[in-house]
Structures are given as C-alpha cells and as structure tokens.
C-alpha cells in the first residue's frame, strides 16, 4: 500500500475504547490509529485478511482516556441522551427512573428544571409551553448498543409521547 488514509477522531476514540475493552491495552491516539482505521472500514481491501497492527505510544493521560471512553461509547450508541417532560410532583423522577431501569439501561447523569450551574441562572420551566407542574428532565443514559437504545426510546415514547426527544451522537433518534 502506497497511499495514506485519514481517520476521524471519533473513530480513533472507538479504537482506543476497543483496545481497552477487548485487549486490555492502553495506547494513545497515534498508537491506535491502525486499529481505528480497520474498525472504521477505511481499508476495505484488507477485509477478511490477516493483518497485524503496530500499537505504539502509551503516552496518554487519564483525563484523555476518560474522554476517549465517553466518545467511543457515544459513537457505539452505548451512551445516549434524552429529554422528557415529566411530572414535577412527587414520583415524577421515580417513574422516569423505573422506565429506564426496566429496559436495563443505566442513568449516568440527570438535570432537571433549575440547572443554574450547568446552563443558566433562570428556571427553565418558566419558558416551557406546558402545565405548571411539569419540568424538563435531561438524561444521559448508558445502553448496550443501538438495539438497546431503540428499546429505551420506544419505552420512553410509550409513556411520554412527543414530550420525549431522544438523541445519539449522530443526532435525533426518531
């Protein structure tokens, strides 16, 4: 092969994640680029062939590994985001948590109503065109992949209908 390939940063994050998960190998982005190119399908002429990739460079700090893991999980649809308009009365969050739990997904982060530290110092609920006793809840959830994410989306849509918007790293999931 006399040509060169470009590998996207998101694909490199997936390569680093795969090496960590399957091979228990820590490598920086440049060291994982060969594996990343293969996983991303950048080298179709090598499909089905035995290929050796040189893994070099372990000079990656823990915060970068964390970002690569999160980005890799998001690209794999194993980290998804949704927003739902839930009841602001007792039990509203519990109901949402139950729906997520019943699908086997895991809530990684949640923000509701007054998110002054994250977004602004204004209560968001004042600007929603909804009943006074509802609040917007934003959730990041961990799934097993796209099929599981679709199952979670379906369960949420059954309960919240159009008051629920589901997103993957590639955009809204309908």
TrEMBL record:
GO terms for biological process: isoleucine biosynthetic process; L-serine catabolic process; L-threonine catabolic process. InterPro entries: Ser/Thr_Dehydratase (IPR050147), TrpB-like_PALP_sf (IPR036052). Its cofactor is pyridoxal 5'-phosphate. The keyword Cytoplasm does not apply. GO terms for molecular function: L-serine ammonia-lyase activity; threonine deaminase activity. Keywords: Lyase, Pyridoxal phosphate. SUPFAM superfamilies: Tryptophan synthase beta subunit-like PLP-dependent enzymes. Transmembrane segments: none annotated. The keyword Lipoprotein does not apply. It comes from the Eukaryota. This is Tryptophan synthase beta chain-like PALP domain-containing protein.
